[in-house]
């Protein structure tokens, strides 16, 4: 994502139809100031192609009440799954 050091805003392609018009303070995902980009990179993406979104923890409705506890949050269960297909082996 792109980050504005002055306003502490974030932006990525798809968040709005066009990037912010005022490029003051904006850095792209590589840390380069948008305002100082060379002419051949003026239209390069601001955000990494794999960017999604960002939010503060205050917006996470399922956050554990003790998430800020210095002792940590108890974990009751961990479920993992590898990237193997759900079909039986040998049927690929």
UniProtKB/TrEMBL annotation:
The lineage of its organism: Bacteria, Bacillati, Actinomycetota, Actinomycetes, Mycobacteriales. This is Phosphoenolpyruvate carboxykinase. It comes from the Bacteria. The keyword Ion transport does not apply. Pfam families: PEPCK_GTP. Gene3D superfamilies: Phosphoenolpyruvate Carboxykinase, domain 2. One of its GO terms (biological process) is gluconeogenesis. Keywords: Kinase, Pyruvate, Transferase. Residues 7-83 form the Phosphoenolpyruvate carboxykinase C-terminal P-loop domain.
């Amino acid at each position: 994502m792109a980050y504005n050091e002055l306003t502490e805003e974030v932006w990525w392609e798809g968040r709005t139809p066009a990037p912010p018009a005022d490029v003051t303070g904006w850095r792209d995902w590589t840390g380069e100031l948008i305002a100082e980009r060379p002419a051949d990179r003026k239209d390069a993406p601001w955000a990494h192609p794999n960017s999604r979104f960002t939010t503060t923890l205050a917006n996470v409705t399922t956050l554990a009440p003790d998430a800020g506890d210095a002792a940590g949050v108890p974990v009751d269960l961990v479920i993992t799954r590898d990237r193997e297909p759900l079909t039986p082996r040998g049927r690929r």
